[in-house]
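STRUCTURE:
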């Protein structure tokens, strides 16, 4: 390996890239990481972390309302967006420093700047040329905006977290988890929020009962949902804000337009044309089961590939690559039972197959379902309802999927995910003693299929 400057050159200091770099260095490799923007990538800076902080901040509104039913006489002066935003900025800055120190303390050389691949083993950052036995592409994704007139007036999730002012009204366009999460944050912070989606129901790919349940809960909370709705153009209003024209000929005014219509792999300017690396029509880098591209010395992980776009998945992929290249190898990453949370309000937790996917795969299924108002809402007139659902193979009794909408769904599904991943049966769920009184016990007390 001494013929190269490094054993591994990582492009992108997001979660997956940093994990792979640190593990590789710990295994004795000489490693460099290039980053053009910020340490920690999308998750730390404009994704999971600030989103969850804003979810906490916006949900205080509902907790204050609920507190009244428990005898708390609380008076507030209202919400200050700038306080939340600046506290977020300080926390992210702290995490950026932690990521940089983690790399340096692991013996990884950090290179600030835009990396361009010049060949199978060569990378340029500015005027500096580096050579490496292996190159890892971990550049992540970037928000996608469709080509419609006036789209330049719309912001994306990248800009959402640092808005100068909280708008009085907003149109959020999109039907994936990012769109709905940000719409919920806006709504709970008092913004007049409308969600636009071009199909008949959001969260395509999730269990249909979960999708319908969340729709009803958001409508109960007063959010405006526009399904089968298509934005045709956006124009800046002379009075301030923006006018949105839709395919039905309607014209509506909003102070802010936010597009969350998907993300695309970030490969622009990367220099892949200087290699044999292939990618699909959407720009996702093509890889084999070992995350190796069609250029043998170049690997790719995370959102820049066509696998699952989740931070923990990128972390697992990064660890796999590190151990394969410089260690003794490790078990492949499993993609069949990935626990997932959507931090809407109420939140979603899910693992395994949806009912419709289980049937599509040929399973004869039994469905166990429970819907109820959690105990915490006993004294409140506004009763948010929880949904829990198990999808079970009728022949083997194996639990194929578990789904939840309600408080702490993500926390609960993390534990359920272990059981589903291990192939637990419904009988084993039933044999587990429930923790009373909790909502989580419902997963082990559902006895009658619907």
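SEQUENCE:
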């Amino acid at each position: 390996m001494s013929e190269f400057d490094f054993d591994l050159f990582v492009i992108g200091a997001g979660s997956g890239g940093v994990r792979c770099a640190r593990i590789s260095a710990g295994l004795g490799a000489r490693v460099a990481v290039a980053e053009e923007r910020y340490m920690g990538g999308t998750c730390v800076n404009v994704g999971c972390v600030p989103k969850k902080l804003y979810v906490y901040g916006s949900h205080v509104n509902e907790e204050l309302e609920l507190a009244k039913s428990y005898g708390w006489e609380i008076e507030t002066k209202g919400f200050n967006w700038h306080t939340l935003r600046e506290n977020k900025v300080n926390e992210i800055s702290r995490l950026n420093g932690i990521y940089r120190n983690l790399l340096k303390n692991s013996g990884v050389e950090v290179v600030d700047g835009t990396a361009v691949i010049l060949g199978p083993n060569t990378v340029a950052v500015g005027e500096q040329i580096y050579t490496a036995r292996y190159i890892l592409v971990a550049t992540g994704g970037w928000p996608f905006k469709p080509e419609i007139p006036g789209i330049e007036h719309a912001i994306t999730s990248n800009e959402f977290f640092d808005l100068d002012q909280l708008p009085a009204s907003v149109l959020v366009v999109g039907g994936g988890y990012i769109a709905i999460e940000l719409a919920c944050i806006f709504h709970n912070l008092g913004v007049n929020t409308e969600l636009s989606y071009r199909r008949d129901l959001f969260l395509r790919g999730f269990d249909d009962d979960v999708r319908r349940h969340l729709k009803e809960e958001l409508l109960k909370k007063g959010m405006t949902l526009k399904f089968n709705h298509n934005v045709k153009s956006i124009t800046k209003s002379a009075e301030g804000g923006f006018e949105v024209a839709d395919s039905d000929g309607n014209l509506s005014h909003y102070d802010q337009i936010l597009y969350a219509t998907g993300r695309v792999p970030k490969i622009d300017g990367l220099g892949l044309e200087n290699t044999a690396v292939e990618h699909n029509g959407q720009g996702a880098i093509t890889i084999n089961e070992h995350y190796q591209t069609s250029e043998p010395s170049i690997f790719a992980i995370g959102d820049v590939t066509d696998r699952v776009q989740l931070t923990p998945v990128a972390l697992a992929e990064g660890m796999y690559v590190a151990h394969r290249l410089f260690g003794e190898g490790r078990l492949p990453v499993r993609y069949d039972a990935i626990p997932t949370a959507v931090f809407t309000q109420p939140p979603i937790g899910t693992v395994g197959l949806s009912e419709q996917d289980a049937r599509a795969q040929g399973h004869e299924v039994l469905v166990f379902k429970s819907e109820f108002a959690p105990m915490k809402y006993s004294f409140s007139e506004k009763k948010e309802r929880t949904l829990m659902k198990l999808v079970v193979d009728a022949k083997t009794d194996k639990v194929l999927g578990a789904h939840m909408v309600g408080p702490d769904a993500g926390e609960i599904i993390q534990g359920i995910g272990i059981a589903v991943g291990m192939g637990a049966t419904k009988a084993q769920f039933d044999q587990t003693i429930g923790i009373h009184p909790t909502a989580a016990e419902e997963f082990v007390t559902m006895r009658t299929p619907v």
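REMARK: The longest strand covers residues 128-137.
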